[in-house]
Write a structure and sequence with these properties.
Length: 509
């Protein structure tokens, strides 16, 4: 879906501005309102002396029964993500029935009225199930029962306080960085940079595949993971997926992409969300990240890519480039425009924690795109906005899950903690896992390293495991059949690189 710049200015930007200033408006007014503490603060439970994890969780449920309600709703949302493909299948069924009815309109007026009612019903249910099948919409949908539960059990004032107090900075940042990163000049620049690597392998589809999946994810350490995911996914479409590889190779590819983007952001302390959540609290800088994570991540990427490349070497060698996979000479973009887009990305990354500045930069970016229209494509905001909606819903749900994540993390030794963080990440955004870990008092240095290692290693196992994954799915899902990316097959595709990464994090010093 293409959205014109005028539509963006009238509809999308006011919405972004609303969320950007909402938290600030709440903070300004909160001093005049009675203090509301929700969700229940961890220190309220006063259960440090309880050794049994089960007893601790049961005690927290008794202290605040809303805990179990919020977690059941969250579990339902997670189950919904795994059923999204089935809902899309039902939507296609109603759509086919709708198209069939359209071709057989009766001439009799009485029959025509009944026919039109049936037609409307088929169209309605087709759209409803299509919406239910959008993975990016799942957590937003389940905000409805969550909000109702908060109002019913805590009151309307508590619901307003909680929603208004949620920080939407990360969702806004992801929307903007995805939109800029998917622009034609940025893709032109990324393709040119990766082409130098692909040329070593004579520019074959196999060489492009290896270049994109090896060097592309490492861009996430500098231009952020959402931007790296967007660029890699779009280049994979033109250089690989359009060539119609087998479905096993497609799932192996998307599994590698998701895992490697998750670990590829660990070369610095400012670009990967799970690292950003703890870097300031634990005093981690870029040198620390390179020493403890970055070099291991690079080795992991090389090993996993090599293993998959070797397994599918025959099929990869038989792929032939398509006629539209290269930018034509007349389509080359002036260096000044490319540099301007890179500066926009740099400014957005630098001001990532200031939502108002991010939105302001995006407004200037759209103006620049309009002024250089001949060298631009129309900015498509459907994918970025859906991903932002996904993250906003996840942040709201995640805030109600602290009651069980904190005791689970503190009950594990470093090895268990790494594996536990990997598993938890598959069912919750890895930035949420590391953020909650940063709140745990008395964490040892080994425990800190373990939880971040597990969180980034497990970031490709599911669509919800890492913030950029929905962006990659949004771009690539049309190449996985009418029902999109299958959750279980994605898990299998991501399993090998995840295991390789965990082994390296455990064994290397």
């Amino acid at each position: 879906m293409k959205i014109s710049h005028s539509v963006v200015a009238r509809r999308i930007l006011p919405l972004l501005l609303f969320f950007a200033f909402q938290a600030g408006a709440f903070a300004a007014n909160s001093e005049h309102e009675p203090e509301i503490v929700f969700p229940t603060a961890l220190e309220v439970y006063a259960d440090n002396g309880v050794e049994s994890l089960g007893q601790k969780l049961l005690g927290r449920i008794k202290t605040d029964p809303f805990n179990i309600v919020a977690s059941v709703i969250f579990l339902a949302a997670i189950i919904h993500t795994f059923l999204a493909a089935r809902f899309r299948q039902i939507s296609h069924h109603f759509e086919h029935e709708y198209e069939h009815l359209q071709r057989h309109c009766p001439a009799n007026p009485e029959e025509a009225r009944s026919y039109l009612r049936k037609l409307d019903q088929k169209k309605f249910w087709s759209v409803v199930f299509h919406f239910l099948g959008e993975v990016e919409a799942v957590f937003g949908i389940w905000l409805i029962p969550l909000t109702i539960a908060i109002i019913a059990m805590k009151g309307l004032g508590t619901a307003e306080h909680y929603i208004n107090g949620v920080n939407f900075t990360e969702p806004i940042f992801v929307v903007v960085i995805m939109a800029i990163a998917s622009s034609k000049p940025i893709l032109f620049f990324a393709e040119g940079a990766l082409k130098r690597l692909a040329d070593i392998g004579k520019g074959t589809p196999a060489a492009w595949w290896l270049s994109i999946l090896t060097a592309g994810p490492l861009l996430g350490s500098f231009i952020t993971e959402p931007a790296a995911m967007t660029i890699c996914a779009l280049l994979l479409v033109s250089k690989f997926f359009k060539l119609q590889p087998s479905m096993p190779l497609r799932y192996a590819t998307i599994g590698l992409l998701f895992v490697h983007v998750s670990i590829g952001g660990t070369l610095t302390h400012f670009a990967a969300p799970p690292v950003v959540m703890v870097a300031a609290t634990w005093n981690w800088d870029t040198l620390f990240m390179i020493q403890h994570f970055g070099w291991k991540s690079v080795i992991s990427i090389v090993i996993a890519n090599s293993a998959v490349f070797f397994y599918f070497r025959k099929e990869l060698s038989e792929l032939r480039p398509s006629a539209d996979s290269e930018l034509q000479p007349e389509e080359k973009i002036p260096t000044s425009i490319v540099l301007s887009h890179l500066l926009f990305i740099g400014f957005v990354v630098y001001t990532a924690h200031y939502a108002a500045l991010v939105v302001l930069a995006f407004m200037f970016f759209l103006a620049f795109v309009a002024a250089t229209e001949r060298n631009q494509d129309v900015i498509s905001l459907r994918g970025p906005v859906l991903v932002g909606f996904f993250l906003a819903g996840l942040v709201i749900h995640g805030g109600c899950q602290k009651w069980w994540i904190e005791p689970v993390l503190t009950s594990l030794n470093p090895v268990q903690l790494m594996l536990g963080a990997t598993v938890l990440t598959a069912f919750n955004d890895n930035a949420a896992i590391t953020y909650l870990a940063s709140l745990v008092p008395g964490f040892t240095d080994q425990a800190k390293l373990a939880v971040v290692a597990g969180a980034v290693a497990g970031g490709g196992l599911t669509v919800i495991a890492n913030a950029p994954n929905p962006a990659g799915q949004s771009i690539l899902q049309s190449y996985f059949g009418t029902n999109g990316v299958d959750a279980f097959k994605l898990f299998l595709g991501a399993l090998l690189p995840t295991v390789v990464c965990l082994i390296l994090f455990l064994l290397l010093p």
